[in-house]
Amino acid sequence: MRAGRTFVCIASGPSLTAADCKATEGAAEVIAVNDSWRLAPHADHLYACDARWWQTHGEQVVREFRGKRWTHQNLDCADKEQTDAAAKFGIELVVGKAGNGLGDPVMHFGDNSGYQAINLAYLWGANRIILLGYDMQRTGGKSHFFGDHPPGLNVGSDYSDWCRKFDKLADDLKAKGVEVINCSRDTALQCFPRMPLADVL
Fold first, then answer.
1. 153 near 50, Cβ under 8 Å?
2. How far, in Å, are 19, 23, 26, 146 from residue 198 at the CA level?
3. For residues 46 and 70, is the Cβ–Cβ distance under 8 A?
4. Distance CA 29, CA 71 (A)
5. Torsion angle (degrees, nearest 10) of CA 137, 167, 4, 38
6. Could you give the CA distance from residue 164 to residue 142 in angstroms, rounded to a whole number?
7. Per-residue pLDDT for the chain (201 aa), expressed as one digit of tens each?
8. Is the pTM of this model over 0.90?
9. What are residue 142's DSSP bridge partners?
């Protein structure tokens, strides 16, 4: 395992609980993904890749979230909607591009913010990454811990395709000596070892 830092990446899957989020406070550096900041207001970072998400939630995030705010800047094409959102809400930009597996030195997208948060933790020096809320499936009939996104954000999720992309990411992280443990209470991801959060923290 390479020397480095421990990160907790918290996605917004339906198995995510407030108690699990609270347990991460002070235990590691925390990256909240999209709406998961609501259960993890102590997070050090909030990452969301979708400019539409920022346009919907950005004002509340600015009012209530004290950590750093991040989104991506596409290396391959200009995205005015993205840069406008970044300027409006004080969001820092991370250079990224479409691609499979681990992006280094440029983040790979993997088609979802949870994937990008893991890649971001690696680029920030992680040697250990703990996952919460990475269900990658509908759990208990729900798509997220809060239900569905509002109109305009509620687009379909191809979970099986996302899981295939995570397989390559997992192989690359292992080759780099990065330990990833999936502590999500319920998950379709099979590429990372699973453990209860209490045993990891």
1. yes
2. 11, 8, 14, 23
3. yes
4. 18
5. -10
6. 21
7. 567 899 999 999 999 999 999 999 999 999 999 999 999 999 999 999 999 999 999 999 999 999 999 999 999 988 899 999 999 999 999 999 999 899 999 999 999 999 999 999 999 999 999 999 999 998 888 888 887 766 666 566 788 898 999 999 999 999 999 999 999 999 999 999 999 999 998
8. yes
9. 139
Q: What is the DSSP string of 124-140?
A: TTEEEEEEES---S-BT
Beta strand segments in the chain, E: 5-10, 29-33, 45-47, 68-74, 92-97, 107-108, 126-132, 179-182
| DSSP secondary structure letter of residue 148 | S
3-class DSSP assignment, residue 105 = coil
Structural domain spans, the chain:
5-128+140-200
